Amino acid sequence: MDMEHARFNMIEQQIRPWNVLDAHVLQLLEVVKREDFVPLAHKALAFVDMEIPLREGGARGQVMLAPRVEARLLQDANVQKHEKVLEVGAGSGYMAALLAHRAQRVVSVEIEPELARMARANLQKAGIHNVEVLELDAAKGIKGDGPFDVIVLSGSVAEVPQVLLAQLKVGGRLIGIVGDEPAMTATLMTRTGEATWTTTTPWDTVAPRLLNFVAPSRFKF
Could you tell me the pTM of the whole model? Predict the structure, then answer.
């Protein structure tokens, strides 16, 4: 496979048409080699418009998101060089690598030990040193590292978790995919004060669930 030609086609045919037009993001997708973060068994699928399983027989949710979804999340997060970022769901480390090029520091949390090890190894091989991969359950909160300027959810949740919103600085923002299939929306929440927020839902997609973030009860009394 001609990796560079495949990468070019991914950017021009999948990502740019999905309203990812930020020149810095598009350049970053050329610099960070996505194929180096894909499990060997699926390397031929590195640039295909699909979710890629991260381990055989793994539960749903243990995937790399489709390239266009990752790129749009990265663009909408709009990370700046001075900012500290929390990523929930390290997976293979690819999104953390993209974020690391834009941020001062990235903390990426992963509930699955095997994936945490994979992410650390991939980031080390890529020469990225401003990411810390923590093996923990983000649904129980992140102690000691917050507050953060940006939080990125690399998977979907039924509703935005309050335990994570509490970790945002005033002026900080959280981007994630929220809702239930088949109708999920990318949701960007910006903390405008100690108890005030603005919310936008700029685009629709679907994504596998992050583990352990409990859906709210649908029962009404």
Answer: 0.94
